[in-house]
Design a protein that fits this description.
3'-tRNA processing endoribonuclease activity; endonuclease; AtsA-like_MBL-fold; RibonucZ/Hydroxyglut_hydro; alpha/beta; Metallo-B-lactamas; binds zinc ion
Amino acid sequence: MVDFGLGCTRAAHEAGLRGKDFAAGFVTHLHSDHVVELPGFLLWNWGDPVEGFTGPVSVLGPGRDETHPAGGTLAGTRDLVAHALRAYSYDIDIRVHDEARPDLAALLRTVDLATPAHGSAEAARPFEVYEDSRVKVTGILVEHPPVRPALAFRFDTDAGSVVFSGDTAECAGLAVLAQGADVLVHEAVNLDFYADKGFAPAFLNHQRLSHTTPEGAGRVAAAAGVGRLVLSHLAGRAEPEWWSSRAAAFFDGPVDVAASGQRFAVGAPVASAV
Ligand SMILES: [Zn+2]
C-alpha cells in the first residue's frame, strides 16, 4: 500500500485485497490526506476474524521533523502509529482478550526512514527503503514545501516497475528515481481552477510551490523515459481530457487519468498478480 488516504480501507477491500495479503505500507508524507486512514486500515485488517494479517507487517514513512519553521518537533510515522494504538487501546485490548486476536502492536514494524538532509548531495540520489522476496523499494526526496521530508517511492519486481510521486512540485530527482520505469503514477494540480475560484493567496501559493502541473508531470515522465504516465491525486477539477492533453504535450507515451479502482497492467501478465 502506498499512503492511507480517506477511503483506502474500503477501496483495498473492493479491489479484492485482504489484510492477510498486506505485507507493507509506504507513507510518502504526513499530510492528513495521505495518512488519515492509516489507523482505520490497521484496525480493519488485523487478525483472523477479518481475514487480516496475523504476522509481522511493516509501515515505513518519514521520521520526525525537527527543523520545521513551526518550531519544536513534529511527529513522525512511528509517533503517528504509536499514538493511534494508544487512542484505540480500548478496542484493541477488548479484541485481544475477547476474540483472541494477536497483539496488534507486536505485529507492526513501524520504521521512520532515515532520509538525506534537504539540499545535501545525497538528497539527489535514490536510497533503499525496503526489500522482500517479491519487491525492492527505493525512495528519493521530492519537493513539497514546507513538508519535509516528502518522499517518492519506486517498486521493482520481476513483473515490472512502478513509481509513485507522492505530493511534489515538478522535481528533477523524481525523474532520476523513475528512470526507465514501466509506470509513473504522478500527482497533478489545475492552478487555473483555484485562481478562477478566488482562493486565498496563501493557498494558491502552496499549490504553485508544492504541486505539479500536468505539463510538468509530462516533462518528468519524458525525462525518466517511463512506459506509461498515470495522473492521480488530482487537485482542482477538470475533465480527464484537460489533464491528459496537457501532459501529452510533453510526453509521447500513453497518459491515463486514474479513476478510483482502476487497474493498470505492468510488464508481462503474471498469474498471481492482483
Ligand atoms: Zn501533501
